[in-house]
Each structure stands twice: as structure tokens, then as C-alpha cells.
Amino acid sequence: MRASSPRLGPAVAAITVALPMIAVLIAVVHGATGTDAELWAHLREHVLARVVANTVILVVGVVAIAAVLGTSLAWLTAACEFPGRAFFSWALLLPMAMPAYVLAFVAVATLDYAGAVPAALRGWFGDGFPVPPIRSTGGTIAVLALAGYPYVYLMARGAFLTHGARVLEAAQSLGLGPWVGLFRVAVPLARPWLAGGAALVAMETLADFGAVSVFNYDTFTTAIYQAWFGLFSIETALGLALFLLVLVAAALAVEHIARGRARFAAADAGVRRAERLRLPGARGCCAFAFAATVFALGFLLPAVALAGWAWDVAAIDLDSRYLGYIVRTLGLAGMAALACLALALVLGYAARVADGAVTRTASRVATLGYAIPGTVLAVGVVSALGAIDDRWRALAGGEGLWLQGTVFALLLGYVARFLAVAHGPVIGGFTRIRPSLEEAARSLGLSTREVVSRLHLPLLGAGIGTAALLVFVDVMKEMPITLMTRPFGWDTLAVRVFEMTAEGEWERAALPSLAIVVAGLLPVALLTWRMERAARAA
Amino acid sequence: MSVLIALLGRLVAVYALAAVAWAGPAPAAGEPLVVYSARKYQLVEQLFLEYGRERGIEVKSVTDDGAPLIQRLTAEGAKSPADVFISVDAGDLWRATEAGLLSPVKSPMLESAIPAHLRDPAGHWFGLAVRARTIAYSTERVKPAELSTYAALGDARWNGKLCLRSGKAVYNQSLVAMMIGDIGEEATERLVRSWVANLAAEPFSNDTLLLKAIAAGQCDVGIVNTYYLGRLQHEAQGFPVQIFWADQKGRGTHVNISGGGVTAHAKNRAEAIRFLEWLASPDIQQRFAAVNFEFPANEGVDPLPEVKAWGEFKPNLVNVGTIGKTQSAAVMLIDRAGWH
Amino acid sequence: MRLELREVSKSFGDITAIDRLSFSVGAGRIGCLLGPSGSGKSTVLRSIAGFERPDAGEVLAGGELLSGRGTWVPPERRRIGMVFQDFALFPHLDALANVAFGLHAEDRDKRRRRALEMLELVGLAAEAGRFPHELSGGQQQRVSLARALAPRPRIVLLDEPFSNLDADVRTELAQQVRAALVAEGATALLVTHDQREAFAIAHEIGVLRAGRLEQWDAPWRLYHSPATRFVADFVGEGTFIQGTVLGPGRVSTELGVIEGELSTDQPPGTHVDLLLRPDDVIHDDASELRAEVVERAFRGAQFRYKLRLPSGATALSFVPSHHDHAIGEHIGIRLDAQHLVGFPRG
Q: Nearest Cα to B304, choosing from B315, B293, B318, B319?
């Protein structure tokens, strides 16, 4: 290992990934003009208080419900035995393949006043039958929580499978029942993982535009869009985005603290497998009903509704182009997953060999993008690459775009947005490798490169897989960055969904939506398969 | 570290392969024409392909909402590959012009085909299809005689019976912007507040939902773009909602356009102008409007029979471009009035 | 191969971990650094392995300079094997693959043969296919040793190799480890805070205190001729009684005049503290010297008595267990010391 290499890696990764952010900041400073005072006054008086309150309510509500759903379902499938447990243990991850904006429009289309369900209820029970409005704060929270809980479920289940058996025994030896044990021992022990999952959900919710737009629920993100595209004040929009960043920094700090504990908690290896707690009779049925309800609402019913609509329009809309959409969607998701993974590995490795201020700052900057609305990031990418293009032309001559409008720009946006998703599992994996293992390998004559390939990568295996698959699924669902930075001919399934939903044609949007869900099932199935295998190996 | 380099190497290879395999149809002879279109793919694709075939060139396009496309054009500046910008809102065209993103075009053909109030006097943009934003009502619970003007929807009789789309929708902002131009900011704000007070439900995120809510009985009247009703009527015979032309005794119904212009830095300017002229020609006009149940901008061309069945109406003849000037004021007014 | 350290120093911030340390271990010998925790022993080991970079001084193996005078050989090129306190077995590999991990022979069979040979050496050939978590602590330890020895390193370092194991396994394992090291003709350096481990394995032992070497000597000499009060105290059990030098090899104490080799060459009349080992104090009912039993610990074959002398000073004595005396009893003792260790009283 050359002395310079541990610091070069994170610096390169951080600069690449921070480019959009830096460009955005430059744009803020650059574009600050005098006309903003009036707008700010307007926003302060009529907009900010409301959207801040809305955003806080939304994030708190979504995170709370997602955490409760994710944790309790993970505990049920990891440490208990009830009818259907084997099925639900993987099926409960499937909602991850369902984009929040798709879940949102399916919910509104079927559950709003004019939708099939309330219409049927009114038909049976008369016009006066009260149906709670889906287009409400509660409805918005419910849909985003259903879309987000799998992140908590995934993390919590991993933790429970590692610690669950031991925890249960410890709790029993102290005379605590299994449910008391869950709250007094298992949850505190799994807290770092739970917090990691909850932070992902919180950031996803903060940055969401698609789902809240369907509900017409105003958040900080919609205010940014409005300032930008309604008032056409990029400065104001970016100012708001900066404000949002403060919230994000807080969320990241929470996750950082959580990770700090995770290192401590993971130091203890050597897992034994214990019997699952058998839930008898009625309690087993309750567990089944609970898991089945979440699965039905989060995946099965929406998928059935999508399939029904898709069937109706498939005759007109489904043609050979769909093969292209699917291949491009999978290809972009795959490339982005690999890129995020590679950079996350660089950051993780750098943090391991040189845990200094540079690496820590680099990691923080690099993972900030997850909570930033995609459009803000996209504009950052376009302006940053534009500046590079200008330099390039000045040096090499020629004209036209060099990096702008290429797949590279698109991937850069994805990486900026989703690196945080890959970063968590990779860092988690690295902290589980004891330093003495590396020293042992080096004392056996292995070079730095061999340590990475023969020790780090094999030991990171599970973490790498989880990281790549999470990014893959997230990129498949991504919309605003794809829309704004895709090159010609790179339309994906999400672009098709946008084009249909933008025209209010939700039934026609069902076809590409269903295609996203089906294509997303593959990586989610892989993810669950890995999880099951890890559980069996333990 | 070299493992990562190898990984990245593979990534680049995958990209190269994918780019070759899936970057769309092979380019035809001649410079391609590049279109940034806020009019969505399903509404323009066939025409783009047809024009390309006719001219022996490739028509490349990206779609997005109007405002992000304007942002993209701004960020790309002089290097932008775009030759033509197509919008679905006159405000967006005005804004693109203000930002210097469109260049003036002198075309006798376009000037004769498109009426003056549907195009920029200096030729920066031309309307290609007209959509009216007017009142929709339940044929089961409302008689047309009860309706008159946009302002009358704020009357007490519609309390709890009015449905509106979100105030963040650009079409509503354009409607309010036009009203500000017509009756001033103060009167407009009073009017918008009276609408908000009459709402039967939280504003909807699109017009289709709104129309279905009227049909289902959640409310009796609403304000929509005509083509959304056209689609629903086309899908379901006897859809119990009908169009009422607002303000016929006054200034006329608010119309907006889907239109296009040649970009300031077009690489293929001659082709871009020819393309707009082609879109404005009678045959193409008919299809351009028909695919979306709109009115052709070219007055010599008939709309679809279903669209014609809504009857003749007097449009507000103020130039649609003036909407843009008051749009910011409209957005702030909507915020103040609590129209979310 | 001979291991040599010359004037090696290493500080972490304000804390000096090792201070101008010099010693050498001859080829094929087993050396040991003994010291309390925080004495810098692990830093010495890590500096030799190349995991720490000394601030000054030289480290040599077989005459080749590994670090110092501007030279720095990275750990992977030092050919120095290491056995870690936590064994550091690779959890994704079975025992055989762990042992073969550091073998770079071109031919797979050769690597496998050598790894099996090493597992046989540590008595674990039957466990070759087991994964680390399927092995007991002692077995993991032996796999770890086999892994370190397999590439035929110039030197093997063992970092507190038995501290994670049960007491009853340690002694036996220490003998096995020693046998394996000797069989391979390896030069080894062990660090530990446990003198029994040190005595069981090492040919020579260095006692480390606050980063400085107090004494480097054979185990027997360390015990019977400690060079410093610290070594005397740290190595083995013992107490001090006051005495006055009468002449060469003669010291007067409250237990009478003692004659023997005196470690310090002090002029007559010097007041000294004289080290009494438990085995120097013999229980003898016939003796006139009497001491009061203040503590007793039954150790099977022996009692370990703590005795109060007439002056109030204490002494320790190992007594065959059929001599069962109660606390408070006065018993007869006599001294049987050939090696007198005295330090001038300061």
C-alpha cells in the first residue's frame, strides 16, 4: 500500500459524488439576485409554516408506522412460528418492488370517492355510508409507510436472525415472556439496524415527489418544485433545498450514531440457532392475519389492480418497444448498482484504512444526496457536466455536448442519489471484519490487493449483495433524475409511467408500472433468497 | 483498489454494449431533428416518426414537464442539442421566450395558418392545438341554465358542490393569470377565495379524477380542460358529465395552447421551421388535435365530431402569451387564497 | 533465523509505548516478552510484524534490515508469521483453507500437502474440513499456529496466545505449541502477561516495564536472580525482609545470618531488602524460629502459608499438605537460600 492511496480513493469518490451538490451550491451563490426578497416574504407568510408542519407530520407518521410494521413483522417471521411464516418471511419484502407513486395512484384510483371500493360500499349500504377519504394526511402516511416498511423489515430481520435466538433465551432465563423480551431486549439490541432502516424511510419520504403529488399533499419537496417551476425562481428553490439539507444532516447524524453502535453490537460473533417460538391457535391466526393484511395492502391487491388495468390496455400499448424499456431499465439499474457499490466499497475501504477527518467528511458529503429531491440533483448534474464540457471544448476544441446528455450524466445522478443506500450495508459489512483478520492476512504475505480480493470481498459478500440489490430496486423506481438527464433513446419504464400519469391516464400507466414491479421482483427475490440462506447458515 | 478498477472497467463495457444495442433506431441520412416535448410521447410519437420517414431523417425526442424542459434548455445553454421546444401551456412558451431560449421565426405559412391570438407576435412560438379550460357539470344534478361564468361558481348555491384541481397545476395558474389580466388582482383573489369556500373535497391531482368525482356524485361542477372529458366520453358512452362554455356573455372561455417554437441555438434550424409548418398543415393539424380531443389551432381544420358536439364557443381572444406575464402573481395569489 | 531489535522506540502522542528497546532471539530459539498490560509488549510485537512503524531504531531478521535507517519492509514481505490473541481465523474458510491461505506455491497439491502436514503437527488433521465456529477455542488456537507456521516464516510471533482459553487447556496447549515450534525449528517470540506461560514455552524471557526492558535472561535466572526490584516482584511470588550486609555473601536478618551468593556487591554495613521466595522458607517444627500463620490456601499437595515474622514482616512458604496448621498458630521455619537477592534500601 502506497502511503497516498488510502486518502486518494475517498477523495476521488467524494468529489465525483459531491459534484451535483457542489454545482447546486455554486448555482445558489451565483444566482442570488435581488428579486428574491418578495418571494421569500410570500413563502414565509403563506407557504413555509404549512409545508414544514406537513412535512414533519408526514415524516414522523410514515417512519413511526413503517418502524412498527417492519419491526413486528420481522420479529414474527424471524423468531416465531405461525401458519404461513415461511411464505411471509420473503413475501413481506415484495412491496419493495412497488414504487411509492404507483402504490399512491392505485390507492387513489380505487379508494377515493369515485373509486371502485367506496362506490361498491355505497351501492351496498346506501349513499350515506361514510368512507374515510384516502386523499388525506392519513391516507398519504399509510401509503408511504406501506411502501417504506420493507426497508425496516429487511434490516430488523437481519438483526433478529443474528441475535434473535440468543435474545429469546436470555429473556426467558430472566423470566420474561417472548413479547416482553421483544420490547425489553430484542428491539434495544437491534436498535442500530432499526434506526438505519428508519433513516432510509425518513429520507425517502422527505425527497418523495411522485406519491405526495398524487395525494396533492404539500411538503417541502413540493414547495421546492413550486418555487422553481411555478414561480420560476431557481434561487428560491435552491434556498429551500438548502433548508431541507439541514433536516437531512440531522437524519444522517441519527444514522451515523446508529452505525456507531452497530459496530459495537456486531463484534460478537458465534451464533447458535434456537427453536422458533410457536404461536398456538388463536395467536397464530392473529399473526397470520396481520402479515396477510400488510402483504395484501402493500403488494397483492395493488398488483392485482395493476394487472387488471394493464390487461385492458395491453392490446393497444404493449409492443416490441417494451422489450427496450425493460432492458434499458434493468441495464441502468444494474450499472447504477455496480457504480454505487464500487464507490461505497471505496468509501468503506478508505474509512477502514484511514479513519480520518477527510474520509469521514467525504462519506458524509457523498451520502447526502439521498434526501434531496431528484430534480435538484439532476440540475446539479447538468450544470456541473456543462462546466466540464465548456472546459473540455476550450482545451480540445469542437462543439456540442460531451458529457451532458450521456448515460454518464444519468449514472452520476443515480450515484449521487443512491450511494447512501449502498453505503450503509457496505459499512456494516466492513465493521464486522475484525482488524486482526487483515493483519493475519498480511502477515501471511498477502498484498493490499490480495487482502481486498481474498478477504474483504468474500467476507463482505452478504453486505455487498444487499447494497447492490437495494440500489438496483431504487433506481428502477426512480423518476425525476431519469426524466431530466436521460439521453435520447433512453426512455425507461418509469418514464412511461410518468408520461401516462402526467396526462391523468392511470389505467394506461398500469402497464409500465406492472412491468417495473415484475422486473423488480427478480432482485427482491434474490434479496430474500440470500436472507433465507444466511438464516439457514447461522 | 484494482478490484474496483476492474469492476468499473466491466461497468464501462456494459454501458458501451448497452448503448450500442439500445440507443434507439439507427440514424437515418441527414441531420437529425431534436425535439424537447412537454406534450407526452403517446400524443406525438406517431407524427414524429411519420415526419422522419417523410424527410428521411431521424426525429429524436425527450419528454418531460414543460418547466423542467425549460430548466434543461437553460442549463445546456448554447450547447443544447434541441431544435424545437413543444409545450402544453402558453405560460411556459412565454417564459421560454423571456429566458431567450426561443428564436423568432418568420413564416408566412405559419402566420396564415395560426390565428394571431394563438401565436407570439414576434414569431417565437406558434399554437398547434387549442384546449379550453371551462366548466364541467353533472348532467344528472345540474341544468345548464344554472351555469354562467367562472365567477358564478363562487356563489353560495355551489357551496359544497364544487370540485377543483390542485392550485399547483399549471393550467389553473394560467386561468388565474388570465383573470388577473382581465379583472385585476384584487377581484381575482376574491373570486378564487369564493371558489375555495365552495369546495366539496380536497383539490384533485388531475382533471380525470375530478371528472370521475363529478360522475360519482362527490360534487356537481368543476373546472377542467376539455380534452380530459373527451377521453372519458370516448371510453364510456353516456358518461354523465358535460361541458359548459363559461363567460360566453363576457370575454369568452379561457383557452390555452399546446404549441412550439424553434430554439435559440437550434443546430438544424431550417428543418425545425419546416417541422412546425408541417405540424400546422391541415392534414396534420387534424390528427395532432384529434389524438387528444383538442381543437386544431388552424381554423380551417375541423375537430373530431365528439369535440364538435360540445358546440361552438367564444374564446377569450386576449393573446395567450400574456398569461405568462402575470403567472407569478397568479401562483402567489393562489397560495394566499389557500387553494392547495 | 535470528531476530534482533536495536534501540527501538515508539510513541503514541504523549505516551511512550517502547523506549530504546534492544534484544535478540537466536535462530531456532523461543523468546518471550513478559510484562503487565500496558507495558508495551504488543507494540513491540506489532513493530516486528510491521503493523506499527517504530519512531526510531532498527529491526532485523536473519541479519536483514526490516525497518530503520530509512528502510521499511511492509508486513506482507517480512515473512514473519503471527498468531493473534483472538486467533483471527478467516470465518469463510475451513481449517485446511485457513492454513493454506498464506501458501503461494504454484501447485495446488503441494499447498494442500503442506497445510495437512501442519494440521497434523498440531494434531488437527481430522478437523481439516471444519469451519472456525465449529472448533473449540484450543483447536482454533492450534489452527492459527499451523497457519502461521505453514509458509515457513523466518520468525513466528505469538500475541497472548493463551489468554482466551480456559486455564485447564493452557498448560497442555503450551507444551504442544512449544513442541510444534521446536519441530519446525522456528524462531519465535511470544508476548504474555502470564509468567507460567512464559516459563512453559520460552528459552529466554524479557521482562518489560513501561516500554523498557528490565531484564533479558533465562527463566531460571529471572526467577532466582532478578536484576531489579520490579522483576523480583513481578516474576514469581516473594516478600522482602530487611537485612544488613556483613560481608561478601553474608547478610544479617531477623531470621539470623544468611549465607549464600549475594546478587549485589554491597559494602558491609549496607541496609538491604532481601528477597524471600516461598521455596526459600522451609517449615521445620524443630526450628527455633517461629512465625504466625496469617493466611493459608490449600493447593492439593501443598499449603501456601502466609506467615508473620516477629518484626511484622511477612514471608510465604510452601508446605507439604500433611502439615495442617490453623490460622494464628506459630510454626517453626528455617531458611534454605543459596541465591540471595538484595536491593539496597532507598
A: B293
Non-local CB neighbours of B62 within 8 Å, separated by 6+ positions: A486, A488, B35, B36, B37, B69
Q: At what angle do helices A5-31 and A234-266 cross, to 10 degrees?
A: 150
Say how far apart CA A384 and CA A495 lie, in whole Å.
23
CA angle A76, A78, A84 (to 5 degrees): 60
CA distances from C142 to C119, C165, C177 (A): 8, 12, 8
C330, C284 contact by CB (below 8 A): no
> Would you tell me the crossing angle of helices A234-266 and A407-431 to the nearest 10 degrees?
30
- C100/A30 Cα distance (integer angstroms): 60
Contact predicate C213/C41, CB 8 Å: no
pLDDT digits (tens, 9 = 90+) for B4-63: 444 444 544 554 444 444 444 444 467 899 999 999 988 999 999 999 999 999 999 999
Euclidean distance between CA atoms A326 and A497, whole angstroms? 13
- 3-state SS, C69-115, equals CCEECCHHHCCEEEECCCCCCCCCCCHHHHHHCCCCCCCHHHHHHHH
pLDDT at B5: 45
User: How buried is residue B77: exposed, middle or buried, by Cβ count under 10 Å (0-12/13-18/19+)?
Assistant: middle
Tell me which of A105, A112, A317 to substitute to probe the interface with B (most B C-beta atoms closer than 10 Å): A112
How many residue pairs from chains A and B have C-beta atoms closer than 8 A?
Answer: 182
Residue A78: CB atoms within 10 A of its CB come to: 25
Q: Is A458 on the interface with C (CB under 8 A)?
A: yes
The total of other beta-carbon atoms located within 10 Å of residue A527's CB is 23
Of B126, B82, B128, the residue nearest B108 (C-alpha): B126
DSSP state letter for B253: B
Helix (H, G, I), strand (E, B) or coil at C187: strand
If pLDDT is split at 50, 70 and 90, which confidence band does B163 have? very high
Q: What are phi and psi of B161, to 5 degrees?
A: -125, 0
Strands (DSSP E) along C220-289, which ranges? Answer: 239-247, 250-253, 256-259, 261-262, 271-276, 281-283
- The answer to whether residues C94 and C128 touch, using CB atoms and an 8 Å cutoff, is yes
List of residues 6+ apart from A434 with CB closer than 8 A:
A267, C86, C88
Q: Are A208 and A477 in contact (CB under 8 A)?
A: no
- How close C133 comes to chain A (CA, Å)? 6
* Contact (Cβ atoms closer than 8 angstroms) between residue C143 and residue C119: yes
Among chain A residues, CA nearest to C134: A270
- Quick: pLDDT tens for C64-83: 999 998 899 988 889 999 99
ipTM of the complex: 0.87
Burial of B211 (C-beta count, 10 Å sphere; 0-12/13-18/19+) = buried
| pLDDT score, position A24 | 57
Could you report the per-residue pLDDT of A6-61, keeping only the tens digit for each?
A: 456 666 656 665 665 666 556 555 554 545 688 888 998 999 999 999 999 999 99
In B18-57, the residues whose Cβ lies within 8 Å of chain A are 18-19, 21-25, 34, 40-43
CA A449 to chain centre: 31
- β-partners of residue A472 are none
- Rg of the Cα trace of chain B? 22
In our burial notation (b when 16+ CB lie closer than 10 A, e otherwise), range B167-201 reads bbbbbbbbbbbbbbbbeebeebbebbbbbbebbbb
The whole-angstrom separation of Cα A273 and Cα A292 is: 26
B72/A453 touch (CB, cutoff 8 Å), yes or no: no
pLDDT of res. C66: 94
pLDDT, tens digit, 9 for 90 and up, residues C222-233: 888 888 889 988
Q: Is A20 helix (H, G, I), strand (E, B) or coil?
A: helix
Q: What is the pLDDT of residue A318?
A: 84
